UniProtKB/TrEMBL annotation:
SMART domains: AAA. InterPro entries: AAA+_ATPase, AAA_assoc_2, AAA_ATPase_RarA/MGS1/WRNIP1, ATPase_AAA_core, DNA_pol3_clamp-load_cplx_C, MgsA_C, P-loop_NTPase. Gene3D superfamilies: 1.10.8.60, 1.20.272.10, DNA polymerase III clamp loader subunits, C-terminal domain (1.10.3710.10), P-loop containing nucleotide triphosphate hydrolases (3.40.50.300). Keywords: ATP-binding, DNA replication, Nucleotide-binding. Residues 38-156 form the AAA+ ATPase domain. It comes from Flavobacterium seoulense. Belongs to the AAA ATPase family. RarA/MGS1/WRNIP1 subfamily. It comes from the Bacteria. SUPFAM superfamilies: P-loop containing nucleoside triphosphate hydrolases, post-AAA+ oligomerization domain-like. This is Replication-associated recombination protein A. GO terms for molecular function: ATP binding; ATP hydrolysis activity; DNA binding; enzyme activator activity; single-stranded DNA helicase activity. DNA-dependent ATPase that plays important roles in cellular responses to stalled DNA replication processes.
Length: 425
């Protein structure tokens, strides 16, 4: 059976690799490491289809090292130990060019599986290269993470994806025999979601579905063919971001039906319970916030619980939490407040702390007046004393704007009572 297009045109050398210039450009950190022949253990973190596996293979090839590959989906501790033994025998214990062990979807490895890698990485029997679509700070155990450098791979740009299509038409033996007119690319790019592998799979599907001598690719033609073959692209991981997006948007839109449907899609697809629970935690603060502070407690308890019990029972807890969040009052006021505050900081820089708010741990600081005019709120009626808490340059700037819901309307009244017209509450 012929290999898929994405596999047929997979780059074999660093100068064929598209994008990620911060890593593989002339001054990229990986370029320098490969040139010196010193490759540390690495974790590639980035969206699906951005070339993590390809980059690992190129590193092994250009540094002339043995290459072993495992997938976290179907590998256990025994598989890891077997590969480590093979790596030790093929590389030798004292060679500078120790073998590379590439682990795809390393975030799916359990703690015990990750523990089994520690000695081999520590003693230099292997150079570990892991690939993950999830934040390694959450998914990789600290002991292993501290032994690896984390490199972030960015999502492909429109230009990167169009370059992939051009390369496919110019270099693939089969496609070169076809008269392909790439009239429109928007549908191909949109359906790929920035995933290079998915883009090439869709492109190949469209080309193979055309019997004409001249294959004209338009947006309408792409949408027509892909909608008829949706099942081909509903593979594990490829709709990962689309489905979690639909899940969170259903919660934000107060539709428990949509939320539970998309939750079921993720559960049936074998999605990691911690990934789902983390997104619920974020939504509880970003989309609900102080309109219902209990939502964050509910989401955090759900995260702790599903981490402990796993599937299949955790599906019930996730469903309960998703429904609770979807039917809760909504407010993004806290989310907008921190966005506003960060933007002010970027625009105004490091403004001085007002002298009455400064700490005065030394005699000199006290003599300079640090903290001298500070009013201790608890010494005043209602535990409130009017004073300025922002730097002089941005005095009276409203940053937190309460949402329009019962809890935050009460908060607005509280702030207006305290601050009168100062912040416009």
């Amino acid at each position: 059976m012929e290999a898929p297009l994405a596999e047929r045109i997979r780059p074999q050398k660093l100068d064929e690799y598209i994008s990620q210039l911060h890593l593989v450009g002339p001054n990229g950190s990986l370029t320098q490491q490969i040139a010196k022949g010193i490759i540390p253990s690495l974790i590639f973190w980035g969206p699906p289809g951005t070339g993590k596996t390809t980059l690992a293979q190129i590193i092994a090839q250009e540094s002339q090292r043995p290459f072993f590959i495992l997938s976290a989906i179907n590998s256990g501790v025994k598989d890891i130990r077997d590969v480590i033994e093979k790596a030790k025998q093929s590389g030798g214990l004292f060679t500078a060019k120790n073998p590379i062990l590439f682990i795809d979807e390393i975030h799916r490895f359990s703690k015990s599986q990750q523990d089994s890698l520690l000695a081999a990485v520590e003693k230099g029997w292997i150079t570990l290269v892991g690939a993950t679509t999830e934040n390694p700070s959450f998914e990789v155990i600290p002991a292993l993470l501290s032994r690896c450098q984390v490199y972030t791979l960015n999502a492909f740009t429109k230009a990167d994806l169009e370059s992939l299509l051009e390369r496919a038409m110019k270099t693939d033996t089969y496609l070169k025999t076809k008269n392909i007119q790439l009239k429109e690319t928007e549908a191909l790019l949109r359906l790929s979601g920035g995933d290079g592998r998915k883009l090439l799979n869709i492109f190949e599907l469209v080309v193979n579905a055309s019997a004409e001598d001249e294959i004209i690719i338009t947006n309408d033609r792409v949408f027509e063919l892909v909608q008829q073959n949706t099942v081909l692209y509903d593979k594990s991981g490829e709709q990962h971001y689309d489905i979690i997006s639909a899940f969170i948007k259903s919660i934000r839109g107060s539709d428990p039906n949509g939320a539970v449907y998309w939750l079921a899609r993720m559960i049936e697809g074998g999605e990691d319970v911690k990934f789902i629970a983390r997104r619920l935690l974020i939504s509880a603060s970003e989309d609900i916030g102080n309109a219902n502070p209990t939502a964050l407690i509910m989401a955090n308890n759900t995260f702790q619980a599903v981490t402990t019990i796993g599937y299949p029972e955790s599906r019930i807890l996730l469903s309960q939490c998703a429904i609770y969040l979807a039917t809760s009052p909504k407010s993004n006021a806290s989310y907008m407040a921190i966005n506003t505050a960060q933007q002010i900081v970027k625009q105004t820089g490091d403004l001085s702390v007002p002298i009455h708010l400064r700490n005065a741990p030394t005699k000199l600081m006290k003599e300079l007046g640090y903290g001298e005019d500070y009013k201790y709120s608890h010494d005043y009626a209602n535990n409130f004393a009017e004073q300025e808490y922002l730097p002089k340059e941005i005095e009276n700037t409203p940053i937190y704007v309460p949402g329009n819901n019962s809890r935050e309307n009460a908060t607005r009244d509280f702030l207006k009572n305290r601050w009168k017209d100062k912040y416009g509450y």
